[in-house]
Specification:
Nitrilase/N-carbamoyl-D-aminoacid amidohydrolase, 2 domains, six-stranded mixed β-sheet, alpha+beta, single chain, hydrolase
């Protein structure tokens, strides 16, 4: 036998192994849960009352977990605050908390529930994972005692953390994550001293996890993807939708596309708080998603995803977000710009006065270029091109660069930037780009009725966000949302730690 012939089976096997790895998929599920909330009180309830409320929510989650497992899901994500809600003071949440150990202790609460003291919630979640052979992701509260030897120990002698937990198919605790970027109002919880980059390996890829507000910051979200090289991010959230740029499905889908990773997003459902919008998002766009502001019903979503998206033949290339925009001269367009507020952020806007045209709008170091053609322009609808380059936020200040083709609520230009949910105008084409000073840019396209546009736009390697064949529905916004993490200001509530 010739040497080359001897090597042939090994080569064939290696190629087959690589092909199997590249085509490896798994079935993921997320559940958008209508949380059963406790009565509003400043006084702590008894531990038994707290557990009774949590069991009511876990009864609902159990149904979703079982259904997901029956449909072949390997992993299910449930929402932030999904087991007890969010209406708490530091004292009133205490009966709902459990001591959650480091996963290094190699613990299966289902078979050894009392090893670390009373842990009925962890026991039940562990058993749900074990009995249904499915990874279960949930959000609960952790408590850690401390004393005067710790100079940062709170006056009540304990730390309280907003915490994600993951149990594997045997019910073993494999991940614990303490939320690093607390949203305003989460005064019942403490900030962890450092951001935790929590990962774990599965037969279907490497996973990372963070919670809600974390997605807007560098740590731990970007660290998990860029440095830890996770394939999929687990994302329990209690996200309040904020138009025009920060509805849950809009931004979470854009984040997955911009940073090129799978994102399993499970939102709580509460229309009075504008909480809805969950999905299974990929580097290529949403595999499936759900947005429902009309009912109070939960929803289970499932989809088959690539376990190793970086090895997929459809994995999108890296984008040079400023390449096109810095290579062209400013479009002459209309010179009359005006200022308008998107919430408290002052944008520079220019009205799109014609059915088609080329426009450039600049603010700070950012110039936004737009080429567009409307297929039907409703007379009572106004669209603008907007640019924003600056710090967003009042207490926590973080740097945004945004280029946006945006519908205004009315023909009164002073309303531009205020929320809009519906539109009538469709576009034959649009091409949006900007001179971004960051590689972290998230492409958003949102249609009338707060709907996504999967497969209807693309991002070219030179940074242009382009419609493919026009918009199939009227457009609310097409946006490039950039984050300059290095220009964020120090986090005031965390400075005191």
């Amino acid at each position: 036998m010739l040497p080359s012939q001897a090597l042939l089976p090994a080569v064939v096997f290696a190629l087959a192994a690589l092909q199997a790895l590249a085509s490896d998929t798994f079935t993921a599920a997320v559940y958008e849960h209508t949380v059963i909330l406790p009565d509003l009180t400043n006084e702590p309830v008894s531990p038994s009352e707290a557990l009774a409320l949590m069991n009511k929510n876990m009864d609902v989650l159990e149904g979703a977990i079982k259904e997901a497992a029956q449909q072949g899901a390997h992993i299910i994500v449930t929402p932030e605050d999904g087991i007890y809600g969010w209406r708490f003071t530091r004292e009133s949440i205490y009966p709902y908390l459990e001591d959650i150990p480091d996963p290094a202790v190699n613990w299966i609460p289902c078979t050894d529930p009392s090893r670390f003291g009373p842990a009925p919630v962890q026991e039940r979640l562990s058993c749900l994972a074990r009995n249904n052979s499915i990874y279960v992701v949930a959000n609960i509260g952790d408590k850690k005692p401390c004393d005067s030897r710790d100079p940062n120990c709170p006056g009540d002698g304990r730390y309280q953390y907003n915490t994600d937990v993951v149990f594997d198919t045997q019910g073993k605790l494999v991940a614990r994550y303490h939320k690093y970027n607390l949203f305003r109002g989460e005064t019942q919880f403490n900030y962890p001293k450092e951001a935790e980059a929590v990962t774990f390996e599965t037969p279907f890829g490497k996973f990372g996890i963070f919670t809600c507000f974390d997605i807007l910051f560098y740590e731990p979200a970007v660290v998990l993807v860029d440095k830890m090289q996770v394939d999929t991010v687990l994302f329990p959230t209690a996200w309040m939708n904020v138009l025009p740029f920060l509805t849950a499905i809009e931004f979470h889908s854009a984040w997955a596309m911009g940073i090129r990773v799978n994102l399993l997003s499970a939102n709580t459902h509460n229309t009075s708080k504008a909480m809805t919008g969950s999905g299974l998002f990929t580097p290529e766009g949403p595999a499936t998603y759900h947005y429902d502001s009309a009912t109070e019903e939960g929803r289970l979503l499932l989809a088959e995803l690539s376990a190793h998206p970086r090895l997929s033949p459809t994995y999108p290339p890296a984008i040079n977000w400023s390449l096109y925009a810095t290579s062209i001269r400013k479009f002459p367009g209309e010179s009359n710009t005006f200022s308008g507020a998107v919430r408290r952020d002052i944008f520079t806007f220019s009205e799109l006065r014609h059915k088609d045209g080329n426009y450039t709008v600049c603010q700070g170091d950012l110039c936004c270029h737009l080429v567009y053609q409307m297929s039907n322009k409703s007379e009572d609808e106004v669209y603008v091109l907007g640019a924003f380059d600056g710090l967003h936020g009042s207490v926590i200040k973080y740097h945004w660069q945004i280029c946006s083709l945006l519908k205004c609520p009315s023909t009164d230009l002073s309303t531009c930037g205020q929320p809009v949910e519906t539109a009538q105008t469709r576009f034959e084409m649009f091409s949006l780009s900007g001179t971004f000073g960051t590689s972290y840019v998230f492409p958003e396209v949102l249609y009338s009725g707060v709907q996504l546009a999967p497969g209807e736009f693309k991002v070219l390697r030179d940074g242009r966000l382009k419609s493919m064949n026009g918009t199939s529905k009227p457009l609310i916004t097409a946006t490039l949302f950039g984050r300059l993490y290095e220009k964020d200001q120090p986090h005031p509530p965390r400075i005191s730690l």
